[in-house]
Amino acid sequence: MKVTIAIHRHLAGVSLAAVASMALAGAVRAQDAATPPTAAPQAQTEDAGAARNADIVVTGSRITTSGFNAPTPTTVIGEEQIANNAQPNIFNTVAQLPSLQGSTGASTGTFSTSSGQQGLSSFSLRGLGPIRTLTLLDGQRVVGANVTGVPDISMFPQLLVKRVDVVTGGASASYGSDAVGGVVNFITDTRFEGFKGNILGSITKYGDDETALVQAAWGKSFLDDRLHVVLSGEYDHEGGVGAGDFGTDLAGSRDWYRATTLMNTGQLNNGLPQFNYRDYAQPYQYARYGLINNGPLQGIAFDRNGTPYNFNYGSGGQPLGNGQVSNCFRGNSFCQGGDLSGAPGSGASLKSALERINGYTRIGYDFADDNEAYVTVNVAQVKTSNQPSPGYNRPSLTVQCANPFLPQLVRDRCATAGITEFSFGSSNGAFPDPRVHTDRRQYRFVGGLKGKIGVGGTDWNYDAYYEHGITISDIRVRDIVLQNRYVAATNAITLNGAVVCADPAARAAGCQPINIFGGFTPSDAALAYVAPHENGPFQHTKLTQDVASLNFSGNPFELWAGPVSVAFGGEYRREFYRVNADPYGAGVSPLSPNSPDYPADPLLNSTLGSNWAAGNYKNGRGKYEVWEGYLEVDLPLIDSDAMGRANLNGAARVTNYSTSGTVWTWKVGGTWDTPLDGIRLRAVTSRDVRAPNLSELFAAPTVTTLPNFNDPFRNQAVQVFQNTIGNTNLKPEVARNTELGIVLARPSWLPGLSLSFDYYNIKLSGVVSTLSADQIVRFCFEGNQAFCGGFQLDGPQGTNFVNVQPFNLASWKTSGFDIEASYQWQQPLGLPGSFTVRALGTHIRKFIVNAGIAGVDPVDQAGANNGNTPDWKWLAVQTYDSGRFSFTVQERWISDGTFGNQYVVCQSSCPASTTNHPTIDYNRMKGAFYVDIGATFKFGENLSIYGKVDNLFDKDPVAAPQTNTGLDINPALYDTLGRIYRAGVRFNF
Known about the structure:
Elements: E1 3-5, E2 14-15, E3 28-30, H1 42-50, E4 74-78, H2 79-84, H3 90-94, E5 133-137, E6 140-141, E7 161-167, H4 172-175, E8 182-188, E9 194-204, E10 211-222, E11 227-238, E12 261-264, E13 275-278, E14 281-283, E15 291-292, E16 300-302, E17 308-310, E18 334-336, E19 353-368, E20 371-386, E21 394-400, H5 408-417, E22 421-426, E23 435-455, E24 458-478, H6 483-490, E25 492-495, E26 498-501, H7 504-508, H8 524-530, E27 538-559, E28 562-581, H9 583-586, E29 620-640, E30 644-657, E31 661-673, E32 679-690, H10 694-698, E33 702-711, E34 716-724, E35 733-745, E36 753-769, H11 773-781, E37 791-792, E38 801-804, E39 807-826, E40 834-850, E41 859-860, E42 872-881, E43 885-894, E44 904-905, E45 919-920, E46 928-939, E47 943-950, E48 980-988
Parallel strand pairs: 2-4, 5-8, 34-38, 44-45
Antiparallel strand pairs: 1-3, 4-7, 5-6, 7-8, 9-10, 9-48, 10-11, 11-19, 12-13, 14-18, 15-22, 16-17, 19-20, 20-23, 21-22, 23-24, 24-27, 25-26, 27-28, 28-29, 29-30, 30-31, 31-32, 32-35, 33-34, 35-36, 36-39, 37-38, 39-40, 40-41, 40-42, 42-43, 43-46, 46-47, 47-48
């Protein structure tokens, strides 16, 4: 099979690809044996020569035959491209591709306590989510790093990766479930020989996220080149970007946070917009060290020393004594401006601190020519830490006027007003800040056989392997309070001359009183009672994956236009998970005795759990099995000078899921190299599926605290628990994916030029999705009784909840196109080497989400920059490479958009505001333009130094306003860290 190094998206359906790329070398593709290789820099030629006898499997198909042209566009990112982008994680390089939208990494999920996805690097193609992108390692499945089933790229042996294939289209018929958006396949160098390493350091302009990466790999052949041993290891420490303080103070000297919020006026039909876009949103139900928020004393706050003062409300507001404030926004309890010191939004980490260790071994033995038996062992650990918020935000607490910690001035005011208690809100700024620590350990073992065998005079490629993967994931949350204990500790009395907890049962269980009127740090004993550090929220998860796979590929006979290529095979897969959580969160069965570490407490719910303010993990387990078989055929139709060359490719797969039965997938496509110089046409349509994952089927109930939830029935903010549960009756999602493309590849009249255009259309039905807690309540409020049975908003303290559960009701429709262009000059302006310009862009025409529920209107999310699907996403690269020195400029661009396309923009004479179409006064979210530069200098063949600056102009993120007190950014689209300096050295012996 002939192999060449290419930089274009053309002949094998391989996309031009170089996303994060900074150089031409490294994109490998299968090429027609009759097509002569194009000119390439010397390094590329050497690489091609070294690989000349290797079979290159392009991930867009299971067909491995020489000369095959896959109809599905496949972007290929080469080894040198990965190196030149100078990232501590390959994930960061691949995620820059415009076709990838909504990928997760160390900068996403840092606001969450309960998800367990902090620092989890996973890809999302076409904005369909990581669970709809199949990620493979050497064409093989990888055990999930989370119960959603998505793997963590941080755990791959990254220094050994030769290339990454990104299939931008449905591939379920070839590769199985989850390949709805496409496939990302990491190809490693299984025959590496020598010793190489990489040392990288980086730091932001603000002096944080200090990163140190050390990678090394060794390979050697023994026994007359029949035994091949490859070892690699790496250590990566990323300091992360910590949390800021309350108010608008961010980590370092970053000054872009403005607490931008969509203020809810609470008015739905008065001719004015319901939501107003405003900076410096001030919550008026609580302050940093406490605020009386209702009754005749409303507006009295407390400073650090416990001294009462009149709170400074924004908007010129004055307390009305009924929990509301004049001139402010009642719907979500905000003023504008004033005292922002209690707002917790800026207290979330901008990037999780991360530490990862990875060890990899592969041993292969050629027991015959072109036949190998091998084993691989991959052991990795990723640990993260982040702060989701500061202190403990408690907007509604009943305080007794007789509380001995209460200043006498306030007690006197109580007496004058004739009250014995009042409502109180505090950010508890003196409490320790909560931290979420995750520890994921992965053990992956693969044994396999691959090679060629002769059957009936024809050579057949075969690949058989068995994989067993284990992921152990632990989540520990520190300094989170037990809510009922907190309430008991705040309710103090004087007894026999000592200040104690008022509740005798709480006192007997160890309650220690705390002073919440000021910045007084609770005693160690009080903190041990309210927020037991050693027994904080905890979740231990074990996931296992077993895969047995057998695949064949060959050319059984020839037709008039060439050999017919066939691939077929089967696979068995078993997925299992078990999760155990702490009894305070999960509850303890009444049939089982309480653990001595979790003594019985009359204030806590020992059966149902959910006692923590956040991080109420639950116990659970589940499994499913999959049996499947597939057949893929490639038929050559035309091969002549007059008509060009064309082929028809088709595949079908039958899959049986133990949870939901049998489903078929298929694809039909083809390519045509037209007689016109350099022009190729390609098209493919497919039926693809995604089976519900373990989390969706068997998820232990997840409880999330919503501290400032809008209750439309009483027009006030309340604290509720959002209970998310699984659904064992879910069925596979089914997608119809169609792609049409035209390519101009190195025409003879301009051989340095490549252009391509690919249109895609995806229709996904039976989508596993849920409505938000706010939507459920709002639809009930608007009269839809079907939504009224799953929530409670006016119950006793700590009992309010909204139940959320997934169903196969929704449908998604998205379409758009990819554009790619490049041009290469050899010896530009008489200089040695080459100069290349390249641009890749993806335009999303529409992304319509239909909830499939009566009364819920479809929403087009294309161009909603508060999500993951901007109208346009571009990447452009300009590279000069002399062979010894290279310099690259890279631009990344996201188009302007909206907060959400469901809004109706108006200033006056507005229509009635509804949940489907709320009115808003402003709905524009600017895009972003980033510039990166990098350079590499080689000292001979074995040593090079490199440097890079990301976000050269230190572009601040654009505000992504919310309707609560969260950090108003969208790290899935925007750079939230600022300018980053990187430098390193590579060696190869």
